[in-house]
Amino acid sequence: MNKTRLEAFSDGVIAILITIMVLELQAPHGADFAALRPLLPIFLTYVLSFVMLGIYWNNHHHMLHLMERPTGSILWANLHLLFWLSLIPFVTSWMGENHSAAVPTAAYGIVGLGSAIAYTILQMRIIAVEGPRSRLATAVQADIKGKASLAMYAAAVGLAFVNQWFSDALYVELP
Amino acid sequence: MNKTRLEAFSDGVIAILITIMVLELQAPHGADFAALRPLLPIFLTYVLSFVMLGIYWNNHHHMLHLMERPTGSILWANLHLLFWLSLIPFVTSWMGENHSAAVPTAAYGIVGLGSAIAYTILQMRIIAVEGPRSRLATAVQADIKGKASLAMYAAAVGLAFVNQWFSDALYVELP
Amino acid sequence: MNKTRLEAFSDGVIAILITIMVLELQAPHGADFAALRPLLPIFLTYVLSFVMLGIYWNNHHHMLHLMERPTGSILWANLHLLFWLSLIPFVTSWMGENHSAAVPTAAYGIVGLGSAIAYTILQMRIIAVEGPRSRLATAVQADIKGKASLAMYAAAVGLAFVNQWFSDALYVELP
Amino acid sequence: MNKTRLEAFSDGVIAILITIMVLELQAPHGADFAALRPLLPIFLTYVLSFVMLGIYWNNHHHMLHLMERPTGSILWANLHLLFWLSLIPFVTSWMGENHSAAVPTAAYGIVGLGSAIAYTILQMRIIAVEGPRSRLATAVQADIKGKASLAMYAAAVGLAFVNQWFSDALYVELP
C-alpha cells in the first residue's frame, strides 16, 4: 500500500468537510447589517468547527508524516476517524441553530469526543504496527495533552446539561 | 497515461461522494433527543453507505496499486465504476427516508449490484491488458468472495420484495 | 510553475462537478417505481453530462500529459475551460427539468460549445508556447474530430429551436 | 512537514469553493430566456468570484512554489487565508441576490479585504521563516500591486455606502 493515496484521500475528505459547512451560512433575505444578526451563532459555530477541523488536518499531517507505510488496519482506523469528522458539519449546523439548547451542545461534544477517540485509536494502531521504537511512538510518548483533551470533551458533554456556556467555553479552549 | 492522475481523480470523486451523503443529515428543528429519532434510519443508511464506499476505496486502492499503467479502456471502465458509485448517495437518501418500503430497498441493491459488476469489469479490463501472469491476475485468481458478493446483491434485490429486512441483513453482511 | 498542481486542481474541479450533479437527483417522496418516472429525464441528462465531463477529463489528461510545463497564460486558459465546465451542472439541471423546451436545450448546447471552444483555446495556447514541433502539436495535427465537434455544437444550438430532439440526438452523438 | 500535502489541501479547498458557488445558480422554473434574466446579477457575481478565486489560486501556486518548506505557523497562516476565501461563496450569494444594496456590497469588500490581508500575512510569515534573502523575499520585494490592492478593497468597502456601483467597478478592476 502507499502512503500518498491515504494522505490524498484524507485531505480530500477533510477539505470537503471544512468547505461544505459554509453552505449552512445561507445568504439572508434582508440586505442590512441587522439581517446578519441571526447568522451570528451559526457563524461562530462555523469558526469553531473550521478551527477544529484545521487542527485535525494539521495533526493528521504530522502523524502520517512520521508513519512508515499503511496496513489494512491503519486504513480502516483512518476511515473511522474520517467518519467521526464527517459528522462535524451536522452537529455544527444543529448547535448553530439551537445555541442555548443542552442536547445539541452535548451532541457537538459527543462528536468531538468520538473524533478524539478515533484519532487516539489510529495513533495506537500505527504504533502497534510499527513498534514502540518507531518515530511516531517516540514523538507521542508524552502526549499528555491528547489524553487531557479526551477528558475535557467528556466533561463538556456532561456540563452541557448544567449550562451550555460551560461546554462552549471548553470547546473554545480545546483547540 | 499516468496512474497518479487516475488515482487522484478517483480519490477525489469517492471522497466527495462519501462526504456529500452527510448533507442529507439535516439538522432537526427540535433541540432534544426525540428530534433525532426520525433521523435514525437516515443515519444508519449513511453508516452503511460510508462503509460500502470505504470498502470500494480500499479495494480500488489495492487493485490500482497492482496495476502497471492505465490504457484508454481502463480509464473508461474506471469512470463506469465511478458512475455507479455516484448513485449511492441517491439510493442512500431514498432508502433512508422510506425504510420499510420494498422498491427503495431494491433500488439500493441494484446500485450495489451495478457497482460490484462495474468493479469486476474494471478488474477484467486490467487483466485483459496486462496478461494472465500480471500481478493483479495472480492476486485475484481465487477471488471467490467477489463472485459471491455479486450473487448476494442479486439475491438482495429479489428479497426486497419479500421482506426488506432480509435485504438489509444482506447489505450489512456484504462488507 | 509545476504541472502537477495544475493537474491536481483541474482534477479536483472536474471531480466535484461530475459529483455534485447527482445532488439534483433528489430522492422522490413516493416509494414505488412510479415515483422514479419523473426523475427519468433528469437521470438521462445526468448520464449525458457525466459522460461529457468524463470525456473532457480524459482528453484533458492526455493533453496535459503531452504538455511540457505551464505558463501563466496556459493557467488562465485552463481556468477558462474549467469555468465553462462549471456551468454544466446548471444547464444539466435546467434541461433535465424542462426536457421538451427549446431554450434550455439551446442553453445546454451553448455551454457545450463554450467548453469546446475553451478546450481548443487551451490547446492552441499550449502549442503557441511550445512551438509547432512540440509533442502536443504533432499529436493534434489532424484533429478533424475536434473541429467537427465545434460545428456540431453550433448546429445543435440552432436546431433546438426547430425541434429539441435533433439537438438531443447531436448531444448523444458528440461524445 | 512536506509541501505537497499543504498544496494538495489548499488546492482541494479552493477547487471546492470555486465549484460550490455554481450551486447558487439554481435552474429557473420557466423555460425561456426571460427566466434567465433574474439570474443575471447572480451570474455576474459568480463570474467575478470565480476570477477572484482563480487569481488567489494562481498567486498561491506561485508563492508556494518559491517557498522551501512549511512550518507550523505557515500552516496556520495558510488555514487563515483559506478561512477568508471560504466566505466568498456566502458574500457572492448575498451580493448576487441584493445587487443594488449597500451592506452586501460592503460585506463582499470586507471578505475581499480580509482575504488580501490574510494573503499578505502568509507571505510575511514565509519570509520571516526563510529570511530576507529567500527566493520569495526577492520576488515580492517590489510588490506595490499587492499593497495597492489592500488600499482599494478598503476604499470599496467605504464607497459601497455612497454608491455601490463605485465598489462594483473597483471589484472588477482589482483582478
Run of helices and strands of chain A: HHHHHHHH
Mean pLDDT of chain A: 80
Number of strands of chain A: 0
Unreliable spans of chain A are none
Our count of helices of chain A gives 8
Largest interface, counted by CB within 8 Å of the partner chain's CB: A-B, 31 and 29 residues
The share of residues in extended strands of chain A comes to under 5%
Radius of gyration of chain A: 18 Å
> What is the number of independent domains of chain A?
1
User: In terms of quaternary structure, what is this?
Assistant: homotetramer
- Main sheet properties of chain A: none
Characteristic key phrases:
homotetramer; 175 residues; mainly alpha; 8 helices; 75% helix
Explain the overall architecture.
Four copies of one chain form a homotetramer. By secondary structure, chain A is mainly α. The first copy, chain A, has one domain. Helix content of chain A is 75%, strand content 0%. Chain A is built from eight helices and no strands. In chain A, helix 4 runs antiparallel to helix 5. The first copy, chain A, is elongated, with a radius of gyration of 18 Å.
